Every structure is written in C-alpha cells, then in structure tokens.
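G., the chain you wanted modeled:
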Amino acid sequence: MSADDPAPAADQRETGDEPVPKPRTAPPADTAEDDDTLPYGRPGRPFRRSPFLLGFVGGLGLVLAYVSYLAVRNAFGILVLIFIALFLAIGLNPAVVRLRKIGVPRGGAVAIVALSLVLVLGGAISALVPPLVTQVGDFITAAPGYIEALQRNDTINDLVGQFDLVERAKSLASPETFSRALGGVFGGARLIFGTIFQVLTVLVLTIYFMASFDRMKSAAYGLVPASRRDRVRLLTDEILAKVGAYIVGALAIAVLAGITSFVFAMIVGLAYPFALAVVVAVSDLIPQIGATIGAVIVTIVAFADSLTIGIASAVFFIVYQQVENYLIYPKVMRRSVKVSDVAAIVAALVGVGLFGVLGALVAIPAVAAIQLIVREVVMPRQEAR
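Predicted structure as tokens:
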C-alpha cells in the first residue's frame, strides 16, 4: 500500500480484508409533495441516443413534415379565411376596448361592433344589387329592339351571308354546346354561392375571435417563459395596436376614395354614383392594386355612357391613384402605424409581389412589427455587446 492511499478503517486494520463498497440505496419514496406536483410519477431516464434512434426520429420528422405540407396545401383556402378573420378581429378589437372603457360589457361591445359590420356590409350590398338588377332588366327589355335593328341593317345582313353565320349558329346549337353552356352557368352559380359562403365564414369567425380575443391572448402568453412574459406581453400588445391602427387608416383612405369618386360621378353625371363610390371604396381596401380595380370598373361604366366621360374618368383615376399611392397612403400610414413613407411603399409592393392580396394586407403591419422588434430587442442586445 503506497503512502498516498487512504488509511483503512479500524475494523479493516484488524481483519486485513479489502474495503467493501457500500451498497447503493434505493431512491427515497415520493413524498406527498411530489405526489401533488407529479401526479403521474417521476419521469424515467432518457433513452440512449443510438444511431438507429436518431435515424428513425429523423425519418419520422421528414414524414411528418411532408404530411404537414399536404395538410396545409389541402386546407389552404380555409386557412386563408381564418387568417383574414383573425386579422379583422385584431383590427376591430380597439373598438371593442373603447366600448368596454365606457362601461359596456364585452359581450355587448362585441355585439355592437359585429352589428355595425353587418350593417356596413348590408348597405354595400343594397347599394350594388339594385343597379345591377335594373341594368339587366333594361337590357332584356331592349334586346328585341336591338335584334330587330340588326336585322334591318344592310351591313349586318351582308356579313351574315358572307360568313354563313346562320349555318354556324345552327351547328353551335347542339347538345354538346348546350351542356357546356349549362356547365358555365352552374360554374358561375357555384362561384357566386362560394363567395357568399366565404364572406359568411369570415364574418362568423371574426365575431368568434373578437368574443374570445382576451382568452386567446392569455393562452398564447402562457406559452412564454414567466421570466420574459411581461416583456413579450408589452411588445405583442403594441404590435396588435399597430394592426388596429393600420385598419383604421386603411378604412379612412377607402372612405376618402369613395367620397372623391362620388363627387366626380355626380359632376360628370354618371348613373348610380353611390353604387360606383361603394365599389371604389371596397376595392380601395386592397393596397396598391385595389384602387386600380375600382378605377377600371368605373371607367368601363363611364365609357358605356359616352366617350368623353370615359376619357375624363380614366384621367381622373390615373391622377388620383398616383396621389393616393405616393402621397395620401404613405402619410396616413406614417401617422397611424409609425412607418416611414419609403418603408410603406416598398412593403406594399413587396407584399403584393410575394403573396398577392394577403401580402398587401399584412405588409404594413409586418413592417411595423419588425421595426418595433429591431428597436426594442435587437438593437439593445447589439449595444450591450
């Protein structure tokens, strides 16, 4: 035995035997406190990280990723509706909060906001449907006169004989042509009813999201570690406030576009000026491209009235769209969302290019959220290094 070895115990010096290792004692039994905190017992030791287990887990991860991709692709339309409804609920929540501050219960506040939304939607539909019905009825009534005038026209009769249009029309009047036309009619009806279903789905989901908005936020904050929960709550509330401010700003721009179009339609004498103003206002809710859609519709109606009014309408909307895109829109977004003019324009263009209408809707709030996170999270960390 070397000098560095520890001296044996007294009983070992007397017997001369080697020291016997002490047997391992069993872990203490779970106490009553452990039973309360761990009702299903203590977790066991983790498995060994063998290559087979790693490969199996990696393959399972690939399979799950592919299945998730298929699920998202198949449910993409429904996910888009859910996203739009959640976006609208976030934007309308400030109105609910203001009603609650004056003493209205949350259920009543949600009901008031939802009823206002339904009234606005119903007003827009009531402004658009009667002109369409009237125009279609006028066309059906005047159709026999149009056909009789065409039959008396010598040029039309010469073209009919030259190109044998009567025989071609008879050949087109076949069961196959009828079935294709019927399929087109059913396709149009399916599109109309599908659009109605989507609008109703978004409306119902928006109401549900507004009613359970506080519970959803609390559940989401519960997933954050307690040490960072307060800071995450403050940043998230600020981002949600910016989304609400963005929707308020977008509504203000749309109302301004509708009022301007109504005044122009009244000046030039267009039929149904209020309906055309509603079309422009609703279309203008889509950043960058919405104003163009509304302008094209109104310009087509103006050209149907007269060439002069059509040209005046085209010039008016070209000038107004440039003013809105590069002057009104950036300034309103800078005041409401605190986003610079250049950032608002670039974000809207990039959003439209990447994700279409959805990208245009979320571009400005996304830029505002990124700016807030960079200013409050990234920059302080860089300064602390």
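The chain is about 85% helix and 0% strand.

Shout if anything looks off.
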